[in-house]
Design a protein that fits this description.
It contains eleven helices and 14 strands. The protein is α/β, with parallel strands linked by helices. Strands 7-8-9-10-11-12-13-14 form an eight-stranded parallel β-barrel, surrounded by five helices. The structure holds phosphoenolpyruvate and manganese (II) ion.
């Protein structure tokens, strides 16, 4: 059960609500976010929720049978919108395109890609400065100094930044230079990291784990929400399967399922899913038709010499063709409904 409290609730009213829940053998956790003040009550007791609903200070109450609560659409039926400022939003009505290199490599590269994105009216740039690499000998990113340069050029041109945070200790250094924190597939269930990101006021995109179930992804989102941050985006990026013909198995079934289960926006990453440059386009278009709220993909001026993931990165002409097709496909999808 979720109880939304009035933001200015009096302490004595809150105490009475907590006491009533306790009397009915519910244990309650208090959750305060940027947007609301909630009690998440867990228990097996029989209760007519009106017993709580009529108490002073309660603004809304719902029974939520899912094991995750605040991210469930049983609690919030309207889809959430993530507002990045400067009129950049992620929601079912504002299809998000996020593009950029796998890794930020140099200042020249940033300047060049920012110019390319501006020209194509793409508002969000991806690029890792802390890279989770399978081998410790691979390029591991330019780190915080690279992020500052990335931020400087994006900020000057009104482009928003999404970049991966790998550990708790990086959050404080990164927070002023990031518009969306990305939690990578390998950190999808790093609960300490999720808890700490929940204490920030910055949107977070969580990628599905390499072998993560849909419910596990939702629980990861619940960690962030219950720690105080409602601005969460989910990302399907392919899961590990027995198939070897491509990098990961893109689970497009997850998109409509997630859109049914949660009010959070759902983004698809075709690059890390198929992992093959020439097939990024068809998979992207399929993702849009499956109901995704946005796409994040990798591109590079010269994919052949990229420091990481060049094999799945589009070059500029390929990316431009894809933006056009993404927009057309999204328009087509909107006409269908
Ligand atoms: C990335 O986005 O570059 C990345 C490492 O993604 P993932 O965590 O999905 O592997
Ligand atoms: Mn990559």
């Amino acid at each position: 059960m979720i109880i939304q409290l009035q933001n200015n609730i009096k302490e004595q009213n809150k105490s009475l609500i907590l006491k009533t829940l306790n009397d009915y053998k519910f244990s309650a956790s208090e959750v305060k976010t940027q947007q609301g003040n909630y009690l998440v009550a867990i228990g097996k007791g029989e209760i007519d929720i009106r017993q709580i609903g009529y108490l002073e200070g309660v603004s809304d109450i719902h029974r939520v049978s899912d094991s995750y609560k605040l991210v469930s659409r049983k609690w919030k039926t309207n889809y959430s919108e993530i507002d990045l400022g400067d009129d950049v939003k992620i929601s079912p009505n504002e299809f998000a395109i996020m593009a950029g290199p796998c890794s930020i490599e140099s200042e020249e590269q940033i300047i060049d890609i920012v110019k390319h994105l501006k020209k194509n009216n793409v508002k969000i740039m991806r690029g890792g400065v802390f890279k989770p690499r399978s081998s410790p000998y691979s390029f591991r990113g330019l780190g915080i100094e690279g992020l500052k340069v990335f931020y400087k050029h994006c900020k000057a041109e009104g482009i928003k930044i999404i970049t991966e945070v790998m550990q708790v200790s990086q959050i404080a250094d990164m927070v002023d230079y990031v518009d969306i924190f990305q939690v990578g597939a390998r950190n999808s269930q790093n609960f300490n990291l999720l808890d700490e990101l929940g204490k920030t006021n910055t949107p977070v995109m969580i990628k599905r784990g390499l072998a993560g179930t849909i419910d596990e992804l939702l629980f990861s989102a619940e960690y962030i929400f219950s720690a105080g941050n409602e601005q969460i985006i989910l990302c399907e990026r392919g899961i590990r399967s027995y198939e070897k013909a491509y990098r990961n198995t893109l689970d497009l079934n997850a998109v409509p399922i997630l859109k049914e289960k949660t009010h959070l926006p759902v983004i698809v990453d075709p690059s890390h899913a198929i992992g093959i440059r020439q097939f990024v386009e068809p998979v992207t278009l399929a993702a849009i038709m499956s109901g995704a709220d946005g796409i994040i993909f990798e591109m590079h001026k010269q994919p052949e010499i990229a420091f990481s993931d060049g094999q799945q990165s589009l070059n500029y002409p390929e990316a431009e063709k894809l933006y056009r097709k993404i927009r057309k496909t999204y328009e087509f999808r909107q006409e269908l409904v």
